[in-house]
Design a protein that fits this description.
- It comes from Sedimentibacter hydroxybenzoicus DSM 7310.
- One of its GO terms (molecular function) is amino acid:sodium symporter activity.
- It is a multi-pass membrane protein.
- Belongs to the alanine or glycine:cation symporter (AGCS) (TC 2.A.25) family.
- The chain is an all-alpha fold.
- It contains 22 helices and 2 strands.
- It has a two-stranded antiparallel sheet with strand order 1-2.
- A hairpin with a 2-residue loop joins strand 1 and strand 2.
C-alpha cells in the first residue's frame, strides 16, 4: 500500500511540477517584475526598511511580527534538506536556477501579499485574509474561494508538515541516536503549546526564534566558506556550467537542473502558493504595498541568501552526490540527498559537533515552519464559516485543529523519507496552481496600488491607502477608513 501511494504521488508530481509549472512561476515572476518596474532592485532599500515597521493593534500584529511569522514558514526544511535534494537531483546547477527564481519569485510574493492586505476583513476581532478571500471579494468567485480554502487547509494541515517533521526526526536520529518517534512526540507537544495561544503567541514565538536561528546559521556558513574560500572560483564555474547542462561530471541535464531549482526555490520561498498571504493579511499597516514589500524582502532572505548559504556549505566541502553518478569525496556514495549533506559539510569545520548543530538548526527552522502551517490552515478553515452567527463553529474548528494537527505531525515524523517529500511536493504544487490563477487575474490591482505608493513616496509622505481615492468592489472600505482614519482626516 505504501509503495502504491508513493508511486501515485510521484506520478502526480511529474505532471504538477512539469513544464507548465516552470512557465507558470517563472513566467509570472518575470512578467510581474517587468510590469512593476523591477521594484525588487529599484526599491531594494525601501523593501527591507518595511520589515521593521511597528504598529500592531488588537486586530493585527506588527509588520515585523508578520514578517517573522511568514519567514517562519519560508526559512524551514527547504533551506537545508531541500537544497540538498535539489543538488542531488539536478546537480550544482540547480542552485543557479534556485537563486534566479528567488529573485523573480519576490515579485509573485509581493503581488499575493499586497492582495491579501487589500481584501482582508475582520473576523472575531482579528484580521483575516488569503487567497480565498481574494477570490470571493476581488472576483466574486465564492465557490472558487471555498475550493481554495479546502485545498489550502488540507495541504497545510495534513500534507505539507510531512517533510518538515520527518527531516527534524531524521536529523536528531543521525546526530544523537534518539528514536524518531521520541523526537516527533516532542515536536507535537511544542506545536500544541504554541498554537494554543493563537496568532499573537505564534507571531511572538516566530519573532524570537527566526532572527536568532537565521543569524546563527549564517555565521556558521561564513566560517565554513572562509575556510574554503580558495575553492570559490572553481565552484562558480561548476554551478554555471552545470546550470546549462555543459558539465558532464555531474550528469544532470539542463531540464532537470531548472526543474529542481524552480521546485525547491518555490518550496522554500512559498511564493505563489498562497501560504504567506494569511499572515501578511494579519499585519497592521497603513498601505497594502508596505506589507507586499516586506514579504518580497523575505523571499530574498530565504531563497537568495539562506538557500545559497546551504548550497555553499554542501558544494564547497564536496559533501554531495548526484543522481547523475557524481560521488563527492566527503560523503558516502550511497547517500542520496537530505540533511546528511549539510551535516557532513558543517562537520568538516566543527567536527562531531556539526551533526548536532545542524540538527538543532533544522529543529528551529522546521518547527517555525510548522507553526506557520498551522495558522495558514486555521485561516483557510475559518473562511468556510465566517458569518457572525457561526462564531461557535469557528471556535470548535480552532480547538479541533489545535489538538488534531500535532497528532498528524507526530505520525509524519515516523514515515519513509521519499513519501514525506513527495506528499509535501504534491501539496505545494497543487496549492500553487489553485492560487496563481487568482493572483494573475487580480494583478492589475497590484500595479495600481504600487503606483499610488510610489507617488506618495515621491511626494515625501508616509504612504497610506485611501479607499476614497482608489478602491474596487469587494474591498472593505469601512475597515480601511478606520485603519487610516487620522491620515484621511488630515489630508
Amino acid at each position: 500500500m505504501a509503495d502504491f501511494l508513493n508511486n501515485f504521488v510521484d506520478w502526480a508530481n511529474g505532471y504538477i511540477w512539469g513544464v507548465g509549472m516552470l512557465v507558470l512561476i517563472g513566467g509570472a515572476g518575470i512578467y510581474f517584475t517587468v510590469r512593476l518596474g523591477f521594484f525588487q532592485f529599484v526599491r531594494f532599500r525601501d523593501m527591507w526598511s518595511r520589515i521593521i515597521e511597528k504598529g500592531d493593534s488588537e486586530s493585527g500584529i506588527s509588520s515585523f511580527a508578520s514578517f517573522c511569522t511568514t519567514m517562519a514558514m519560508r526559512v524551514g526544511t527547504g533551506n537545508i534538506a531541500g537544497v540538498a535534494v535539489a543538488i542531488y537531483m539536478g546537480g550544482p546547477g540547480a542552485m543557479f536556477w534556485m537563486i534566479l527564481i528567488g529573485m523573480t519569485n519576490s515579485a509573485v510574493c509581493f503581488a499575493e501579499c499586497t492582495l491579501g492586505q487589500l481584501y482582508k476583513v475582520r473576523v472575531d476581532g482579528a484580521y483575516r485574509g488569503g487567497g480565498a478571500y481574494c477570490a470571493e471579494r476581488g472576483l466574486g468567485w465564492k465557490a472558487y474561494g471555498t475550493f481554495m480554502a479546502i485545498v489550502l487547509g488540507v495541504a497545510c494541515a495534513v500534507f505539507m508538515p510531512a517533510a518538515a517533521t520527518y527531516t527534524i526526526s531524521d536529523a536528531f536520529r543521525e546526530a544523537t541516536g534518539v528514536p524518531m518517534a521520541v523526537t516527533s512526540a516532542v515536536i507535537a507537544i511544542l506545536l500544541f503549546v504554541t498554537v494554543f495561544g493563537g496568532i499573537k503567541r505564534i507571531s511572538s514565538v516566530a519573532s524570537m526564534v527566526v532572527p536568532f536561528m537565521t543569524v546563527v546559521y549564517m555565521v556558521v556558513t561564513f566560517i565554513v566558506v572562509a575556510v574554503n574560500i580558495t575553492k570559490i572560483p572553481a565552484l562558480i564555474a561548476d554551478v554555471v556550467t552545470s546550470a546549462f547542462g555543459l558539465n558532464a561530471v555531474f550528469g544532470a541535464a539542463i531540464g532537470t537542473a531548472i526543474q529542481q531549482g524552480v521546485k525547491r526555490g518555490t518550496f522554500s520561498s512559498a511564493s505563489g502558493m498562497g501560504e504567506s498571504t494569511p499572515t501578511a493579511a494579519a499585519a497592521e499597516t497603513s498601505h497594502p504595498v508596505k506589507q507586499g514589500l516586506s514579504n518580497a524582502a523575505g523571499v530574498w532572505l530565504d531563497t537568495v541568501i539562506v538557500c545559497t548559504a546551504s548550497g555553499l556549505l554542501i558544494l564547497l566541502t564536496d559533501t554531495f552526490n548526484t543522481a547523475g553518478g557524481y560521488h563527492g569525496s566527503g560523503i558516502a556514495a550511497d547517500v542520496t540527498g537530505g540533511v546528511v549533506y549539510v551535516q557532513a559539510a558543517v562537520s568538516t569545520v566543527l567536527g562531531g559537533f556539526g551533526n548536532i548543530f545542524v540538527a538543532v538548526m533544522l529543529l528551529l527552522f522546521s518547527f517555525t515552519c510548522l507553526i506557520s502551517y498551522y495558522y495558514e490552515a486555521e485561516t483557510a478553515a475559518l473562511y468556510l464559516f465566517q458569518k457572525p452567527e457561526q462564531q461557535k463553529i469557528r471556535k470548535a474548528i480552532t480547538r479541533t485543529m489545535q489538538f488534531g494537527m500535532p497528532v498528524l505531525v507526530f505520525c509524519w515524523g515516523i514515515i519513509e523519507s521519499g513519501t514525506a517529500w513527495n506528499l509535501s511536493d504534491l501539496a505545494l504544487g497543487t496549492t500553487t496552481w489553485v492560487n496563481m490563477l487568482i493572483v494573475i487575474l487580480l494583478f492589475p490591482k497590484c500595479i495600481a496600488l504600487y503606483k499610488d505608493y510610489v507617488e506618495q513616496m515621491k511626494a515625501g509622505r508616509d504612504p497610506y491607502y485611501d479607499p476614497d481615492k482608489l478602491s474596487w468592489k469587494g474591498v472593505d472600505v469601512e475597515l480601511w477608513k478606520e485603519i487610516n482614519a487620522k491620515r484621511i482626516e488630515a489630508k
